[in-house]
Amino acid sequence: MGKYSRIVLAAVMVVAFSGYADAQYMSYRVAGYGYRQSPEVNNYLSARYDHLLQVSPRFRHRHMWKECHTINIQPLHLDCIASFDQYEPVLPGYGWRRYY
Question: Whole-model pTM?
């Protein structure tokens, strides 16, 4: 193979594969869950989680336990619990209700 044929082959390969990187589809997959592929779905699920923390005491209590129960250092455990009130405060009218 001559010197010029190698240059031509390299130029042909560059032109042939230059559009390949642009045409690739980006797939968003977390732990094999196909329904969480797009950033839009991730944003929706995040907003739903935040809303449920604000309006559902049962959901809030479960997730506070789930996220903070493994922290054994007392000041850090209390900070974890307090972070729920800081970032997702309970909306007025959605606290624990007592039925008599």
Answer: 0.56
